[in-house]
Specification:
about 400 residues; alpha/beta; N-utilizing Substance Protein B Homolog, Chain A; Rossmann fold; about 10% strand
Length: about 400
């Protein structure tokens, strides 16, 4: 059953019938709320709850919203880390938290109260917070009129073992994503990948101080940049791979479609001390001469299904139709970039997803042969390329395909 994900509520059959208003403090029937009860002192849970209200009901992006909220807060570093865990974790595990709570909700509450109940359920089931603190501190955030209701539900969640009805509820993914992973990878590897992406990502730092997922570092290495070579990074923002190749001594030109994203490349290259010319350019109509690069990297826009742990709300925003649109964009990028590679040069295509449609199902560009030399473990052969699963080395999931121009 393929369902369109709902960024403002759990992506299950029940979620399509509640939490849709996008309004705060609507009409009251049953256990309703007018929002959280503000006290004079800002707490970690208060900041987390405010962020979740914006994410669940206003469509805010967690990774953009939370840093600005933390910057404006007066919280100490330990509390900031706790807020990050609560916001990202509750958002990531939204469907599972909804299932935990749903067992004890007899009268429909306002959407804000549901968000608060999910925040409490996450602390109880996934964050390891002692029940007395998870329940008591979360109840304090509720409007006085609904504190008794919130207290009763969360106490039942804390005292009642959960029997999960299915893996989509347990792992907290839309049905279509779970089905896609099982279809692509098989049940064992598919579920393992989804489970891995419910954990916070590991922080990996390069020798030059740039923070970048280890899988992305490996992709940059596999481009094979050599000192003095002329290389084009077609979709370069935020500049991690471009600066990595520049660090290998290559002359790298970094391009991207949006000026604000190009600015990220400029800032990162400047901070790291690399000379990387940057161009605002449409990758499907690149303003470069034919056969003018030794190597071209297309780190293509994709569904990001291999990097869901980094974007906790992405699983609730993506739809199967999005993948179809992205496949068409990727195909245009490949067709446009291939003529830019000199004879004997290399075209590298990579995506942070695990699907065949977005990677190895693309046709080999005319005049190119697939490079079959296998990368080191943990890359696994996958069609005409190689795939890295999140559980293989605690990285993002990725696919890379390399082509060599004839001549």
């Amino acid at each position: 059953m393929n369902q369109r994900s709902n960024p403002r509520g759990p992506n299950d059959q029940r979620g399509n019938q509640r939490g849709q208003s996008g309004q705060r403090g609507g009409g009251q029937s049953g256990p309703n709320s007018q929002g959280s009860q503000r006290g004079p002192k800002q707490t970690a849970r208060q900041v987390a709850y405010d962020a979740l209200l914006r994410i669940d009901h206003d469509g805010a992006y967690a990774n953009l919203l939370l840093p600005s909220m933390l910057d404006r807060s007066s919280l100490h570093e330990q509390d900031r880390r706790f807020v990050t865990e609560l916001v990202y974790g509750t958002t990531r595990m939204r469907r599972a938290c909804e299932a935990l709570v749903e067992r004890f909700v007899m009268t429909e509450p306002d959407p804000e109260v549901r968000t608060l109940l999910r925040l409490g359920a996450y602390q109880l089931a996934f964050a390891g917070v002692p029940p007395h603190a998870a329940v008591g501190e979360t109840v304090e955030l509720a409007h006085p009129k609904v504190r008794g209701f919130v207290n009763a539900v969360l106490r039942k969640v804390s005292n009642t073992p959960m029997i999960w009805s299915d893996d989509a509820d347990r792992l907290s993914y839309p049905d279509w994503i779970l089905e896609r992973f099982v279809t692509e990878l098989g049940e064992f590897e598919g579920l393992a990948a989804l489970e891995c992406m419910n954990e916070a990502p590991t922080v990996s730092t390069r020798d030059d101080g740039y923070i970048q997922d280890l899988g992305s570092q490996w992709v940059a290495d596999l481009v094979g940049a050599q000192p003095g070579e002329r290389i084009l990074d077609v979709c370069s923002a935020p500049g991690g791979k471009a600066t990595s190749m520049a660090g290998d001594g290559a002359f790298v030109i970094a391009a991207d479609l949006q000026p604000h994203r190009v600015a990220l490349v400029v800032d990162n290259a400047h901070r790291l001390g690399y000379h990387v010319p940057v161009v605002v350019a449409d990758g499907s109509a690149p303003p470069f001469a034919a056969a003018s690069f030794d190597r071209v990297l297309i780190d293509a826009p994709c569904s990001g299904l291999g990097s869901l742990r980094r974007r906790p709300d992405a699983r609730w925003r993506l739809t199967p139709d999005d993948l179809d649109d992205l496949v068409a964009i990727q195909s245009r990028l490949l067709s446009a970039a291939a003529p830019l590679v000199r004879p004997g040069g290399t075209l590298v295509y990579s995506v942070c997803t695990i699907t065949a449609a977005e990677s190895v199902d693309h046709a080999t560009p005319d005049g190119f042969d697939v490079v079959t030399d296998a990368p080191d473990d943990p890359w696994q052969p996958f069609g005409s390329g190689f795939r890295l699963l999140p559980q293989d080395a605690d990285t993002d999931g990725m696919v890379i395909v390399r082509y060599r121009a004839r001549g």
